[in-house]
Amino acid sequence: DTLEWDERGPVEAMPIATVAVCTRDRPEDLRRCLDALMLLPDDGQEYVVIDNCPATDASSELIKNYPKVRYVREDVPGSSAARNRALREAKHEFVAFTDDDAAPDPNWLRSLLRNFRDPRVMCVTGLVMPLELETEAQEWFEWYSPHGRGFERRVLDGALCNPLIVHILGVSASMAVRKSLIDYIGLFDEALGAGTPTVGGEDSELFARILRAGYRIVYEPRALSWHRHRRTWEELQKTLHGYGIGVYAFWTRLFVINREFSVPLLAWGWLRYKQIPELIASLRKQPDAVPRDLLWAQFRGCISGPMAYFASRKLLQKIKGSNE
């Protein structure tokens, strides 16, 4: 069940989108991202930068050099709050998200938007490749936990597939959604994501809700973006620790809020068939085994994921209560 289109079709048929960049105190990354976005073909899209709880005015000053870009400050911390603000601010039905540490290819936006010609498609994700592979940490990240999901286009139909198997989709650093998902699916869970105690998991949780509602998600590898992997071993450990927190926080949300009662089996399967075999291979020092310190960092994150989700919800209630 695939979608087809004429690559040589008229540009006039292309939907118009809002391109949203979520950032926080990384002006050099943001500059590279915006420079890449300015190379996109001009199909009438608008550009919005959501500056999440900035500690300085560096990003707002930088954006003055980009007249096509609109600056919006969001003071509720977290990538989900930033993306929700982008959805509310968007002037167009289609909203394409990228992060400040990504640099989209010139064909990125058009490749995402073409897939929305199917009205059942609620979300499209793209291929994310490494911007550079210059350090051992960057090579291990790309080998063990890449953002890319391969070079084959796939369509996941919520009416036909398991809505919990979302790991084969992409990530929110390269993603487009319909703004109307606010009405049909709801917003991102603001207790999940970078900038919160849960560190991540917000994109996976949204994907699961989209599929559970019976809509489609397309993984489109032609929508290419380049991601700056962290250069040092300490940064890689921190990243994998955060991924562990995010995965188990996401599963906790699915179990407690979404009432997905098969989640414990999913978590047990991941432990039995992935984490334990990887740890055994590392202890035996098998070729290409993942270093133990990376596995341990991720495992510690997994253990703390459930409590991180509840702590994040409590913190979010406190923040929003103080802002009222």
From TrEMBL:
Species assigned in the record: uncultured Leptolyngbya sp
Family: Belongs to the glycosyltransferase 2 family.
GO molecular function term, any single one: glycosyltransferase activity
Pathway info: Cell wall biogenesis; cell wall polysaccharide biosynthesis
Lineage: Bacteria, Bacillati, Cyanobacteriota, Cyanophyceae, Leptolyngbyales
Keyword set includes Transferase: yes
Annotated Glycosyltransferase 2-like domain residues: 18-141
Pfam families documented for this protein: Glycos_transf_2
Key words, A-Z: Glycosyltransferase, Transferase
Protein name: Glycosyl transferase, family 2
Keyword Glycosyltransferase belongs to the record: yes
